[in-house]
């Protein structure tokens, strides 16, 4: 790794954990802290819209308690709909993600498009795929993707949905994004993880990304070609490690993929 790459890596690591732009206060459900929210966002939602979705955010002891009828999941998803109605939600996916308390215990689920505005922690999974001579398969994200359209990524990257275990998410996303069955891969291993905590531009810049990404690595035979199944990938390329390094420093890869590929290369 040369000096330019070393400096780039330092910058990438620093950007993964950034201070808050503004004050955030804890978001609690049934006495459990599950996320955080900017007071200005609550004001933008307003009592009328919240009432229309049968939820209420009560400010008490410096935190916001989500109140209303029904389970924690029902209330959180009605809050998500209120965010959507105010134009403050992220891309709506009709996909539920797990909501955990501070101890990591799952207490509810919520629509994916609401996690960043509410500062709810998420989990994701990535796969680094190589061939025998060390070249790496990478994908270019579709131009229609809500986040990082057209940028380059690992062979596969996706969220762990509420219905998935980590292993199930790895298998599902590998098939959907690359058309590959895990059984066809050689030497599949858990490589490690990267964590992010940084402001997000969702909710008019009032979002917070908190994410834990587990990454895996495997070898593909020369005859095995990835083929996208869900329309979220433009194309795949098989690159020499030197080209991957150059593209990383040039900023062609997503931030998440950059740190994962750096870890894979042992930097």
UniProtKB/TrEMBL annotation:
Q: Which InterPro entries match?
A: NUDIX_hydrolase-like_dom_sf, NUDIX_hydrolase_dom
| Coiled coil feature spans | none
Record-linked CDD domains: NUDIX_Tnr3_like
Q: Entry's SUPFAM superfamilies?
A: Nudix
Q: What Pfam families does the record tag this protein with?
A: NUDIX
Segments forming domain Nudix hydrolase: 117-262
* Protein name (database record): NUDIX domain-containing protein
From the broadest rank down, the organism's phylogenetic lineage runs:
Bacteria, Pseudomonadati, Pseudomonadota, Betaproteobacteria, Burkholderiales
């Amino acid at each position: 790794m040369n000096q330019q790459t070393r400096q780039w890596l330092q910058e990438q690591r620093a950007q993964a954990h950034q201070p808050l732009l503004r004050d955030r206060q804890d978001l609690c459900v049934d006495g459990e802290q599950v996320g955080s929210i900017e007071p200005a966002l609550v004001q933008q939602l307003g009592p009328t819209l919240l009432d229309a979705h049968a939820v209420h955010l009560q400010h008490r002891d410096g935190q916001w308690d989500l109140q209303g009828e029904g389970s924690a999941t029902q209330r959180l998803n009605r809050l998500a709909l209120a965010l959507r109605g105010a134009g403050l939600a992220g891309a709506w996916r009709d996909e539920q993600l797990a909501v955990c308390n501070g101890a990591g215990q799952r207490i509810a689920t919520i629509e994916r498009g609401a996690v960043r505005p509410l500062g709810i922690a998420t989990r994701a999974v990535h796969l680094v795929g190589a061939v025998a001579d060390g070249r790496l398969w990478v994908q270019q994200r579709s131009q229609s993707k809500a986040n990082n359209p057209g940028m380059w990524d690992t062979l596969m990257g996706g969220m762990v949905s509420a219905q998935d275990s980590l292993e199930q998410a790895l298998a599902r996303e590998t098939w959907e994004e690359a058309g590959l069955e895990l059984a066809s891969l050689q030497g599949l291993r858990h490589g490690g993880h990267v964590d992010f905590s940084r402001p997000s531009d969702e909710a008019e810049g009032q979002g917070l990304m908190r994410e834990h990404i587990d990454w895996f690595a495997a070898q593909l035979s020369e005859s095995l070609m990835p083929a996208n199944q869900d329309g979220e990938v433009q194309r795949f390329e098989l690159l020499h490690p030197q080209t991957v390094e150059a593209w990383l420093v040039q900023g062609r890869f997503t931030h998440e993929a950059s740190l994962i590929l750096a870890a894979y290369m042992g930097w």
